[in-house]
Amino acid sequence: MSRDYFCHPQALVESEQIGAGTRIWAFVHVLPGARIGADCNLCDHVFVENEVVVGDRVTIKNGVQLWDGITLEDDVFVGPNVTFTNDPWPRSRRRPDSWPKLVVERGASIGGGATLLPGIVVGSGAMVGAGAVVTRSVPPRAVVVGNPGRVLRYVEDEG
């Protein structure tokens, strides 16, 4: 079977919805229902569940898990070991009827080691600082740091 994306031999890609030019590195696991856009980079040890949508030109660094209900829009950067959550009341062997949505809008960046709780939106062009714990939605172009995450300032320009 011919494909127009790179897949490391040690990756497990079960989805057929992978965009052209995407690079999937070692020890990545993409479940069958996931949708990955074009020209993305999924680094080592990334896990992507079924109900996940990843836009075009997204970078996902090492050690990130994307759970059901998560959408990363175009041009998003996710730093190493970012933790996304999708269950507001986790209990063993109890599943909600549906997963809360967590959306990272176009051009936003999430710094390494940040934690994002379910049901939030990270606005377009926003920046979440390394290690921040994001407990509520982030406005577009806001710079959020700390625990709990608070707006420090706003991005002045795209540079």
Distinctive features:
single chain; 159 residues; mainly beta; UDP N-Acetylglucosamine Acyltransferase, domain 1; 5-stranded parallel beta sheet; 0% helix; globular
What does this structure look like?
The chain has 159 residues and is mainly beta. The protein has a single domain (1-159), classed as UDP N-Acetylglucosamine Acyltransferase, domain 1. The protein contains no helices and 21 strands. The protein has strands spanning 6-7, 12-13, 23-24, 29-30, 35-36, 41-42, 47-48, 53-54, 59-60, 65-66, 70-72, 77-78, 83-84, 102-104, 109-110, 115-116, 121-122, 127-128, 133-134, 142-145, 150-154. A nine-stranded mixed β-sheet has the order 1-3-6-9-12-15-18-20-21, with no helix packed on it. It starts with 5 loop residues before the first strand and ends in a 5-residue tail after the last strand. 31% of the residues are buried. The model has no long low-confidence stretch (mean pLDDT 96).
Order of helical and strand elements:
EEEEEEEEEEEEEEEEEEEEE
Q: List low-pLDDT spans.
A: none
Count of discrete alpha- or pi-helical segments spanning 4 or more residues? 0
Strand order of the largest sheet: 1-3-6-9-12-15-18-20-21
Content of β-strand? 25-35%
